[in-house]
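Design request, tokens follow.
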């Protein structure tokens, strides 16, 4: 699968996360080894821009090849060319399509087919009903066949206990194993031991945890066309029109405050005060002189601005606190402030820090 092979594209200033995996594309009498690009918004590039249905059509016509004919020429563009002698492909068209659908789910922090199978497994282990066993079987069969090996994350078992529970006694598994009552019992014992080990690990985990966020990532993707009346997640963006008082001055947004602190020109500061919309502020300061030490001060300045914004507006702080311990990924044209594949995500990280400070303040915690 394509996990951890990250890419992205930019659409209307918004960074769309993506990934890629190698494929063969048939063009006339030749196959070309190239990259299948998969993006979080469902767009897929295979020399053409398509969606999942479009990819299915490419697979059905053989344009995206999962079957290679002996004797046909192949090319890796300027790297190499060769002819197939005894070609073997490890994925079918349906398996590739399922893999791509999983990648889109993964890029959106949604459960993929394996995750959904494990959720169905948890339900069945709790209820032990035939109805939930059938749902578990359907969820397992929905996992692309070429990845139905390590859903349990156990390199030794290779999903054997899962296959046993998916299959009724007296029937054959997808691996043509005839299931017996003893096998079912052994599978249940496996999961009971697994649950016991999980409890022991939890009880013995380091006191300072958890290591990873428990809430799903919050992506501040782009400025909406119209700000909602009631503050939603969009209010976490710096462009959100709300006053920020800092340094004895009041600004129309965090963007206004940031650039006013950055410039050394009083006339520009005045112009910023008279600029209504946040997106127009950068235009106002394009040619303005900035502090010579601004690259070293900007992080502290932004922290102070965000702290002021959310402490001065409790209703906005409520939205920030409601994100729990989620990682906040900010999207902006600057790789310094923005998240994504190559960004440092300082705006997202500062929002997480201010969130922690607000939670501590509300709890009466003073280090």
């Amino acid at each position: 699968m394509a996990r951890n092979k990250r890419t992205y594209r930019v659409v209307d200033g918004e960074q769309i996360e993506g990934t890629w995996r190698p494929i063969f594309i048939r063009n006339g009498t030749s196959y070309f080894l190239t990259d299948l690009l998969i993006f979080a918004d469902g767009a897929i590039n295979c020399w053409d821009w398509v969606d999942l249905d479009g990819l299915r059509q490419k697979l059905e016509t053989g344009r995206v090849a999962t079957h290679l004919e002996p004797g046909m020429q192949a090319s890796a563009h300027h790297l190499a060319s060769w002819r197939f002698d005894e070609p073997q492909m490890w994925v079918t068209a349906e398996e590739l399509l399922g893999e791509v659908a999983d990648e889109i789910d993964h890029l959106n922090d949604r459960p993929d087919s394996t995750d959904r199978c494990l959720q169905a497994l948890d339900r069945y282990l709790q209820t032990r009903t035939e109805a939930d066993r059938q749902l578990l079987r359907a969820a397992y069969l929905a996992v692309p066949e070429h990845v139905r090996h390590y859903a349990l994350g156990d390199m030794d078992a290779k999903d054997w206990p899962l296959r046993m529970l998916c299959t009724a006694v007296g029937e054959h598994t997808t691996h043509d194993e005839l299931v017996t009552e003893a096998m079912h019992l052994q599978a249940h014992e496996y999961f009971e031991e697994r649950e016991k080990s999980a409890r022991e690990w939890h009880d013995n985990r380091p006191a300072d945890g958890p290591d990873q966020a428990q809430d799903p990532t919050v992506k501040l993707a782009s400025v909406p066309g119209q700000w909602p009346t009631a503050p939603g997640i969009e209010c976490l963006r710096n462009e959100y029109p709300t006053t920020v008082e800092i340094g004895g001055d009041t600004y129309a947004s965090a963007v206004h405050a940031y650039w006013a602190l950055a410039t050394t020109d009083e006339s520009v500061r005045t112009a910023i005060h008279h600029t209504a919309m946040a997106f127009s502020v950068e235009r106002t300061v394009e040619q303005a002189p900035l502090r010579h030490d601004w690259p070293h001060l900007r992080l502290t300045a932004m922290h102070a601005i965000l702290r002021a914004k959310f402490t001065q507006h409790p209703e906005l702080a409520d939205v920030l606190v409601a994100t729990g311990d989620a990682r906040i990924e900010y999207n902006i044209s600057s790789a310094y402030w923005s998240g994504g594949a190559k960004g440092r995500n300082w705006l997202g990280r500062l929002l997480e820090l201010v969130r922690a400070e607000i939670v501590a303040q509300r709890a009466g915690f003073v280090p």
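Comment from the thread starter after seeing the answer: thanks! The chain has a mean pLDDT of 92.
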